[in-house]
Amino acid sequence: MRLSSMADYAVVTMSALARHCGSASLADAATGKRARTSATELAAETGLPLPTVQKVVSLLSKAHLLRSVRGAGGGLQLARPAAAITLADIVEAVEGPIALTSCVEAGRHDCALEGNCNVQPHWGLVNETMRGALAGIPLTQLAERQPVEAAQ
Questions:
Q1: pLDDT per residue over 21-71, tens digit each?
Q2: Helix (H, G, I), strand (E, B) or coil at 75
Q3: How far apart are CA 71 and CA 41, in angstroms?
Q4: CA–CA separation, 82 vs 87, rounded Å?
Q5: Bigger pLDDT: 120 or 31?
Q6: 83 to 7, 16, 70, 87, 124: CA distances (angstroms)
Q7: Helices marked H in the chain — which ranges?
Q8: A Gene Ontology CC term for this entry (predicted)?
Q9: Nearest alpha-carbon partner for 4 in 91, 130, 123
Q10: pLDDT for residue 116
């Protein structure tokens, strides 16, 4: 399985946003304002073309992972704390529900093995396990400059 380029770009963009606005979900104690950045700044930091960042921002906004604030002092900010956003949330915002096969989707009947497949009943568990693994990785971890060692 491989993520689409757009899902990869969404993860990169959200990670950069978390670094810029890591406390974006927490009001600044002195001013009550939240940290913000712009699509232009995110494009510069990530090396992604601005139109790509804008498209990713649109998808992430529709999924309520980030919000755009208009006007003076506006910009982009996380919609909730970075620790409450997971890799699964970001991937699903771009790719839709995490599913390794389409046969588990209601109404899909495009498999030549349908009706004779002994594995089909198990794909739901596989998909839940895959989503659970991705949901176990918070945006705060993805935003760190140094990778966290994987458990052996």
A1: 764 444 444 444 457 899 999 999 999 999 999 999 999 999 999 999 888
A2: strand
A3: 17
A4: 11
A5: 120
A6: 19, 14, 25, 11, 27
A7: 5-20, 39-46, 50-62, 87-95, 123-135, 139-143
A8: cytosol
A9: 91
A10: 80
- CA-atom Rg of the chain in angstroms: 18
Q: How far apart (Å, rounded) are the C-alpha atoms in residues 46 and 74?
A: 20
Burial of 107 (0-12, 13-18, 19+ CB in 10 A): exposed
Amino acid sitting at position 14:
M
Collapsed DSSP state (helix, strand, coil) of residue 68: strand
Contact 22, 77 (CB under 8 A): no
Total number of residues shown for the chain: 152
CATH number of the domain located at residue range(s) 5-97+138-143 in this protein: 1.10.10.10
Phi-psi region of 115 (alpha: psi -120 to 50; beta: other; left: phi over 0): left
- Pull the structure tokens for residue 106: 């209601």
